[in-house]
Amino acid sequence: MPEITRLPYDVVVIGAGGAGLRAAIEARQQGKKTAIISKSLFGKAHTVMAEGGAAAALGNVNQHDRWQVHFRDTIRGGKFLNDPRMAELHAKEAGDRVLELEYWGALFDRTSEGKISQRNFGGHEYPRLAHVGDRTGLELIRTLQQRVVQLQQADAAELGDPDAMLKVYAETTVTELVKDGERIAGAFAYIRESGEFVMFEAPAVILATGGVGKSFKVTSNSWEYTGDGHALALRAGATLLNMEFVQFHPTGMVWPPSVKGILVTESVRGDGGVLRNSNGERFMFGYVPDVFRSQYAESEEEADGWYTDPENHRRPPELLPRDEVARAINNEVKEGRGSPHGGVYLDVSTRMPAGEITRRLPSMHHQFKELADVDITAEPMEVGPTCHYVMGGVEVDADTGAAVVPGLFAAGEVAGGMHGSNRLGGNSLSDLLVFGRRSGLGAVSYLDELGSDRPTIADESLEAAAATAQAPLRREAGENPYAVHQELQETMNDLVGIIRRGPEIEEALENLSKIRERVANVRAEGGTIYNPGWHLALDLHNMLLVSESIARAALEREESRGGHTRDDFPEMSAEWRTVNLVLSLRDGRIRLRHRPVDPLRPDLLELFDREELAKYLTDAELPAEETAKEEK
Amino acid sequence: MPTERTFRVWRGGADGELAEYTVEVHEGEVVLDILHRLQATQTPDLAVRWNCKAGKCGSCSMEINGRPRLSCMARMSTFEEDETIIVTPMRTFPVIRDLVCDVSYNYQKAREIPSFTPDPETRPGDFRMQQSDVERPQEFRKCIECFLCQDVCHVIRDHEENKRNFSGPRFLMRVAELEMHPKDTEDRRMVAQEEFGMGYCNITKCCTEVCPEHIKITDNALIPLKERVADRKYDPVVWLGDKIGLRKGADTPMVPNTRPNTYPEEDTPE
Ligand SMILES: Cc1cc2nc3c(=O)[nH]c(=O)nc-3n(C[C@H](O)[C@H](O)[C@H](O)COP(=O)(O)OP(=O)(O)OC[C@H]3O[C@@H](n4cnc5c(N)ncnc54)[C@H](O)[C@@H]3O)c2cc1C
Ligand code: SF4
Ligand code: SF4
Ligand code: FES
Asked: Which residues of A touch B252 (CB under 8 A)?
């Protein structure tokens, strides 16, 4: 057995995206010795790819905006299945978190008054997304990265060592969480560069590992998104919430094949881009669902008027929440009105001058030019749905990010509840900041209560974790992990994708149980130093567990809502709205139970008129007739 | 129709060698796709960094036929059909394995630069900045830290001995960015010269040429910074925007204890 280094910390944050960095910054600011672990290099986490912006009701562009409106939009977008407390905290605190970034050096685009500019996005009533062109995620992660460096510089000056209180372990992958009795005691990891194993010993571990998209064939997500945090949490005894809700972003690239799935930012539509089918029709007018009918334009003139005069026009239907647009595109293609490569057309070229396009959407212009030979200032893009985001995640306490296992916390995309059945664009970046900070604080107060009563880790758990990690390298024979991965992706894409049917999900579960046997026997050729085949062999365990969780929950929920569409149960059901699906792992098997969704507080319920509530809630849940507030 | 192409790829560490592969190439693919096909079909342990596959994260830097490039943005259609494609790791940094190299030099240099420091009298939300005042530093913040400019710069490309005293174009640009931030209050001109090696740069513009973000590193960051350094009495009003008046008038020193003593013997800067 190789030497395993033990690294003692107060707080270990797994993930160096927006959520992880914000959590670590908070923990260190509160005086805790903190480690940040990341599979990729520092500053490259998935957050870097976010384009459109961070949603916060700053009211800089439209002064009517306030947190209550943001809250209402979030709940509408999530189809009333959000954890109301999380949605409330998010809407209230997002503004402060964005301003704090600016104070740490971020340079957002400006209004003429010199404030942070805000742009329109699907499902947001007012222009609300603080942004930098279409590279907001880069600005966010770079600012947090530079804030980490600034704190390290303070430690260098004061303590003589920049890594004394806050250290980044880049290209290091956690394979197992270790417990002492019921409590979290640390995280076991390998270092890519050297192949060495390390044991992070810490009473508090924060999961900020992002999403699960690599289980699907067509996805906007990178290799990092193998659902590690979801799987680590399950295996450590924590619970996952509503894993059936997977967001398919309506606009991914469809051609050339090698870039299929890469995201085309929603800002294209927010800034005026329109969707057309092969007959040249703006088909979205035909897809406005009843629940949103009163808020969206019915004619092209009305829709076009909205961009300049939003007070007197209703919104264009291209800006419906993502699930609606994705299903509409799917249907147009299915009914034979798609583009040559199986998508639909997204056009800005006829909507604004070329110069404005390159200024407002520089990286989209660049991406299409370089990767598809398409000049978006002169011709339309071809786009189609792509797996983008998972709403489901670790079940946490809203205020502290605490999971059910003592010492375990989660924030960002890996946490569940905040976005209900469908996330609004721009609500993730703000979520990372709000709940990243809160989970950092949560870990700090857990530690303070713990005092000197710290968990410990026995040598045996180290050896067991190392043996599991090395198994694929030790096998003399076995399958190539890449082949198994491909099959898993096809199963999920084809059978548990954007439109689902009961028998197909059952078939997926059968396939997955066969894949399970194959995953257990994959073989990694080569050594331990920077060996991607080995890394994939280990990641497969996580992707499989997450895929099974998604499929199990998708089979259970017999309705269609947000990021879960059942062809055999096409309606949204008021009864199912009250149900959270909670998954856990017992003796290697996934268990599923129902937990009621927390009701909206009366003051929050009042934000909606009764007519709208009646579309979502059961009669018993509706407020009494006379107390309901009439809005119009 | 797929075609068969010849790839020669660096395998192993510093003492490694080029290995030859014949591999299928499909329409629309980029070099990174081909490396992934090699992993999936011929050599599963081929080490290569990547993340976004869309030119946004700066992970997949390498040298393709001797040119520093992002492999996810290097389209196969830009090569001749019978051209052998040679893929090697970035030469300026120590190779770890195959196409992956140790880029810690860059993170080290980032840590030596005094951070953004607003006026302590202000609070979050107080800042008012015009778009025209933030545009220039925003250009520099487009940087995806691919380190291709660092790789190509001749000051360190074959001169290990200069690494201690030269931060490279990416981080000299970071200094320029902070100097141009309308709300920053420090003065890094002296450290830029004495610690970060501004004087080594002789404006060859090679860094600008390889930048995948098309940032005008030399014209917009390095030359203006050189001018500031050359004449610290220059009236800063023109490009310091409204930060004049906030300056304490003192040179900001390098952050203590951020430079390790592990660099090789150095040449003294000119
Ligand atoms: C193309 C694209 C565009 C988007 N645009 C927007 C937008 O405009 N607005 C918006 O709000 N949202 C957007 N999103 C969504 C948003 O970017 C993500 O949901 C968000 O960045 C997730 O952040 P995170 O901090 O949770 O995780 P990430 O940023 O993904 O970070 C995860 C971290 O965990 C690490 N990690 C994972 N597993 C392990 C392990 N086993 N061991 C060690 N480390 C591990 C990874 O290395 C990484 O550092 C977009 C997403 C994509 C893909
Ligand atoms: S311009 Fe200066 S920094 Fe850029 S490559 Fe030339 S010497 Fe290096
Ligand atoms: S300045 Fe350009 S070349 Fe240099 S690291 Fe940044 S993006 Fe890469
Ligand atoms: S993979 Fe992100 S820049 Fe190439």
From this structure: none
